[in-house]
Write a structure and sequence with these properties.
Largest sheet: 5 strands, parallel
Number of helices: 7
Order of helices and strands: EHEHEHEHEHEHEHEEE
Structural class: alpha/beta
Strand content: 15-25%
Number of strands: 10
């Protein structure tokens, strides 16, 4: 009987934000997989290590995916990763692929998940706390009030177009575009907060555009809210 692949969301950073189901699933799987060249290079592994017993003793597949927008290269890497996981499943082993936040939100895992399912194997998703939800909790405010819209946006879009949306804008992976973000926030007098490395030991919170640095790490999110909360 073939094993089952689980895409497990480990949350945004603090191991205590992992769900019981995430911890239980990882503990029962003899194989884990991480999106890195070595397990200790994967933030998702380091987070899980804080809550999961016996993690170090498990077989680990290091499934590194390059940081590129080339679709051909990415699809080859996804297929290679899926085939390695399928080999474990064919041996009757369950495998847990560890991913930051939630596996359904801009996650590499979902492409591998689809390929595994296309080949007729069982694959399931274990939800995790998304980074922007944890960020809103950190700054003590809601993501959206009453009938406000909520837009979750990876920063590959035109900034004017993004900030023209009504409601709350969650700008994901914003670290490399902070000068442009700050320029637009100040130009249009928009309220915003920024959190870098949410839930980690080096977490930093900035509550206004003029406080934000020009450079920040990959795990940086900016929350832009409408001034009117009525």
């Amino acid at each position: 009987m073939s094993g089952t692949l689980y895409g497990v969301g480990v949350g945004p950073g603090d191991p205590k934000l992992m769900t019981y189901l995430a911890v239980e699933t990882i503990e029962k799987c003899p194989v884990i997989a991480v999106p890195a060249s070595q397990k200790d290079h994967a933030l998702s592994y380091r987070i899980a290590k804080g809550m999961v017993k016996g993690l170090k003793e498990k077989e680990c597949l290091a499934l590194s995916i390059p940081m590129t927008k080339d679709r051909t290269t990415l699809e080859e890497c996804y297929r290679t990763a899926a085939n390695k996981l399928i080999h474990c499943l064919e041996e009757g082993k369950d495998a847990a692929y560890l991913t930051l936040g939630d596996p359904t939100i801009y996650s590499t895992y979902i492409y591998i998940h689809r390929l595994v399912k296309e080949q007729g194997y069982d694959a399931k998703i274990i939800s995790g706390v998304p980074s922007f939800c944890a960020m809103a909790a950190t700054v003590g405010d809601s993501l959206a009030d009453r009938s406000q819209q909520l837009h979750v946006i990876p920063l590959a879009y035109d900034m004017e177009e993004v900030l023209d949306h009504k409601g709350t804008k969650v700008l994901m992976k914003a670290g490399s575009k902070l000068p442009l973000i700050k320029q637009h926030l100040e130009k249009y007098h928009l309220e915003a907060v920024m959190v870098e490395n949410c839930g980690l030991k080096d977490e930093r919170v900035y509550t206004a555009a003029n406080q934000m640095p020009d450079k920040a790490g990959y795990y940086t999110t900016v929350l832009v809210k409408e001034a009117d909360h009525d």
